[in-house]
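PROTEIN DATA CARD
Card holder: YALI0A04587p
Chain length: 152
Origin: Yarrowia lipolytica
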Amino acid sequence: MTEEKRKENVDAQDASDVEDNSDTASSDTYDSHDPESEYYDPENGFRKQPIEEVRQKVEEMEQCYLDAQAEMKELAEMMEKYKSLKSKCNKLSAYRVYQGPWSVYMERMEQEFPNEKFEIHEENTLFNISQQFDELTNELLRESALQVTKDV
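Structure generated from the sequence above:
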């Protein structure tokens, strides 16, 4: 008998052992909500709680669910803003590195258009916003990692 055939026979036997074992009922079936089910337990503690407590828990969970849905939507929108900000910071950083002396351009603009005011006055400003973005990203990653390790 080949190795492959022997493995198929073992796998088939293992599967039949599981199917034949009626003592292993699914955990989903215990305390079934169906009164006709053999696993229905009218004495279950959750069924004996006062309806006011049940109502309060249901309302609390409903509100928590609605809040979570709203925050999930906000987070999805925030991710789009994050991607947009990343793109802008990359553009500013690339400009600083590849496109020439910002201070010369600013001097020329101030000479030609003295009444116009600009927020960027020196090259470091271009670098600083990219650095701030990187720090923000690192902080988000750190917080995410902490949350993941708490959940594990």
